[in-house]
């Protein structure tokens, strides 16, 4: 029989996973991991016009006053390490892997509303394990990116004093914080999955299913 079970725990689990996945996406594609110092003293200048860099993208204030954003991994992971630091290539791999895994788990959180197990294994437990792996991947990405701050690209942006885990004149950008918040939410979601599984197995839920209800909503 086809039925759908929605509990407050499963809803929170889904929303937490979805928000974490969106934050991973923001961290991956936006060039705001490091933000360079403000240029000039024009009171009308916007912080959005500061030079910045992400995992594989950058924005640059041009000398003639223009502003340009784009990718610098022109050959992907095969890009020369003087242009695309090896540490950032590794960060790109792990963040992309974590984002891909977490995206799959978001779909799995929806599947658990209709199906509790697959091949004799709890879908909740398998999804929680996958979310832990996704979180570890993002953690590695957040650790590897600062290791590449000695690169010439960063020293031109932040000053010659820039070194691993010390951005010199630069500041940590919103993309980096999105990665951190997404990481915390991912581990939180993995923990909530245990509560979601137990709430789906409560006596009240089983009684509603046995009574023939196709949609079971339990707070």
UniProtKB/TrEMBL annotation:
It is a multi-pass membrane protein. InterPro entries: LHFPL. It comes from the Eukaryota. The chain crosses the membrane at residues 12-34, 90-111, 123-144, 174-194. Keywords: Membrane, Transmembrane, Transmembrane helix. It is found in: Membrane. It holds the Pfam family L_HMGIC_fpl. GO terms for cellular component: membrane. Coiled coil: none annotated. Signal peptide: none annotated. This is Uncharacterized protein, isoform B. It comes from Drosophila simulans.
């Amino acid at each position: 029989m086809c039925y759908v079970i929605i509990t407050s725990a499963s809803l929170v689990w889904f929303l937490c996973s979805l928000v974490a996945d969106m934050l991973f996406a923001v961290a991956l594609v936006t060039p705001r991991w490091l933000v360079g110092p403000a240029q000039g003293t024009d009171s009308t200048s916007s912080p959005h016009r500061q030079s910045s860099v992400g995992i594989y993208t950058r924005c640059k204030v041009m000398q003639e006053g223009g502003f340009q954003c784009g990718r610098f991994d022109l050959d992907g992971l095969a890009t020369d390490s003087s242009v695309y630091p090896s540490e950032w290539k590794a960060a790109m791999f792990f963040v992309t892997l974590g984002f891909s895994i977490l995206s799959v788990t978001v779909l799995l959180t929806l599947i658990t509303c209709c199906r509790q197990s697959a091949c004799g294994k709890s879908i909740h437990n398998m999804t929680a394990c996958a979310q832990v792996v996704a979180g570890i991947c993002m953690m590695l990405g957040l650790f590897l990116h600062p290791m590449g701050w000695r690169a010439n690209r960063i020293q031109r942006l932040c000053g010659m004093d820039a070194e691993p885990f010390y951005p010199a004149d630069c500041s940590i950008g919103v993309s980096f914080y999105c990665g951190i918040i997404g990481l915390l939410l991912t581990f939180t979601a993995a923990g909530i999955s245990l509560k979601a599984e137990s709430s789906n197995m409560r006596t009240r839920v089983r009684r509603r299913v046995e009574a023939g209800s196709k949609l079971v909503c339990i707070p």
